[in-house]
Amino acid sequence: MHPVVKLLAQRIALGILLLLAASVLIFGGTQILPGDVAQAILGQQATPVALANLRAQMGLNDPAYIRYFHWLFGAMHGDFGTSLANGSDVATDIAGRLANTLFLAATAAIIAVPTAITLGLISVRYQGRWPDKVISAVTLATVSVPEFLLGYILMFFLAVEYPIAPSVSTIYDSMGFFEKLHAIVLPVMVLVLVVLGHMMRMTRAAILNVMQSAYIETAELKGIRPFLVIFRHAFPNAVSPVVNVVMINLAYLVVGVVVVEVVFVFPGMGQYLVDHVAKRDVPVVQACGLVFAAVYIGLNMLADVISILANPRLRHPK
């Protein structure tokens, strides 16, 4: 078997095993929560007969492993059950919320990824000089500020003092594309500032590591301009670690938006999860946890695949 095919198969198998392990943890975590689901649905005034009937109807009397496999089998077929809070179909609710979260994350990524790579290239070009120091200082400062604090600072200045964007980022299906973009200006700014520093610094470190190679010195001796040496010779050979850090940050943009969505009341997966955690809506919590785990593991697995395919020593073995 070709080494690339073997490595790809291993990474995909590992990703599937990790997702299964995550599903076990998610299901087990919701099962050990204090309280009784049937009691939470029917209220404290429910009779023992009514509680017993509901437990039997929901399968709560079955062993935990049987309930887990029923839940997992349903999730694999797109059936996440029914919300305990309002009786709606969880999969239908998640579809709309996930689309909103992906829209927010994609908008932030379109801005953050090229900006971070460009700043990384500039920082390497002017290593040790004032552009490098300014870029490093600013990005380090943005990474150090918590998302919620950064969100409230931007909200105060850009929605209250100088109102150029709404403080509440509510979007609807009937809104136009540019109306949605205007509504999410502030949460996108927060997400960009949060991930920009990490991506830039890792890009800078990866390129500087490649700059120590002999062929870079040869290119410099040929009289090629410094920025072209970095962009054409160093950067392509630093793609693998850069792709990994970009994918990790893309996973964060989807999975780690909970705080940002709550701050700006954005109707995405994070806000949906927080609302239903407070209501002890177990099917919704399980579904959101599994979707978040699938996105995170999937993007990291994609990063591994791209890194394998970008490695010329694996593509052309001796």
Describe this structure in words.
With 318 residues, the chain is mainly alpha-helical. The protein has two domains: 3-76, no CATH class; 95-278, MetI-like fold, CATH 1.10.3720. Helices cover 75% and strands 0% of the residues. The chain is built from 16 helices and no strands. The protein has helices at 3-31, 37-42, 48-58, 64-76, 90-125, 130-144, 147-161, 177-183, 185-210, 214-221, 226-234, 239-255, 258-263, 269-278, 282-309, 312-315. The longest helix is centred in the middle third of the chain and has 36 residues, at 90-125. 29% of the residues are buried.
Mean pLDDT: 85
The CATH C-level name of the largest domain is Mainly Alpha
> Into how many domains do the coordinates divide?
2
CATH-derived architecture of the largest domain: Orthogonal Bundle
Helix vs. strand class: mainly alpha
Head-to-tail CA distance between termini: 14 Å
| Radius of gyration, CA atoms, in whole angstroms | 24 Å
Q: Count every beta strand, where a strand is a DSSP E run of 2 or more residues.
A: 0
Beta-strand share of residues: under 5%
DSSP helical segment count: 16
CATH superfamily grouping of the largest domain: MetI-like
- CATH fold call of the largest domain: MetI-like fold
Outline the biggest β-sheet: none
What string gives the helices and strands in order? HHHHHHHHHHHHHHHH
Oligomer: single chain
**Amount of helix:** over 70%
Low-confidence stretches: none
Could you say which overall geometry the principal axes of the C-alpha atoms support? globular
